[in-house]
Amino acid sequence: MNVMIYSIQKPFLKNHKLHDFHHSLEKERRIIERGEHLAVIHQLNLEFQQRYNLRIDFDTFEDNYAKDSVSQFRNKAGVDATFNLVSCKTDKVLQEGFTLDYKFRDPNAVWDDFLAETVSQDYIRFNSKKPLVKGWAICNHKINDAILYILPFYKKAALVRRDELKEGFEKNRFPLDERRRKIAKNKGWDTISYTIDWDRLTKVCPRTMIFNYE
After folding, report:
1. Which phi and psi angles does 12 have, rounded to 5°?
2. Apex 98 CA angle, 93 and 104, nearest 5
3. β-pairing verdict for 93-105 and 146-151
4. Percent of the chain scoring above 90 in pLDDT
5. Is 78 left (phi over 0), alpha (psi -120 to 50) or beta?
6. β pairing state of 114-122 and 156-161
7. What is the pLDDT of residues 108-155, one digit of tens each?
8. What CA–CA distances, in Å, run from 106 to 7, 76, 102, 115, 168?
9. Other C-beta atoms within 10 Å of 92: how many?
């Protein structure tokens, strides 16, 4: 769960910003505390209604940003928000505990694409024998139903089903060429992500909902 900052396209140049996970996590927490994500959530609710005749039960809506051990465990498992999905016709709960993992693009980032993290921690450049840690796009321990990917610069968001995204990478349905590879340098490891065009994303992940918000 990161606020993703990529200042340039080619890795390891002098002006490439150093990525700090804990700083990013705290930055995301402040975004939630200010309620900057609520316009996206309300528009997502409208998208559910228009496309699937479902609605978010806001009585069950909960952001998961407390600092207790249970909240932190859920946060690391990719659960940033939880709510029930209810039928607009019958008010029957059709999915209990639908879970989201928020991904906020930097508000000044002008790239209009989906940036999927495939490697969270790569220690190879530091001559370490530690194993790679998979990123949120493909790791097995994430339990969220979907990623809510938010691009503040464009007032745009996408709801991407985690199972479809993970399967797409497993079946090599996304291009992983060098041009799309982005590396964020950390203190002791690198984080690797790949850009995905919207057309390709919706083809591989057909339940993706892309929308604008006010």
Report:
1. 70, 20
2. 145
3. parallel
4. 68
5. left
6. unpaired
7. 999 999 999 999 988 887 877 788 899 999 999 999 999 999 999 999
8. 10, 20, 13, 11, 25
9. 7
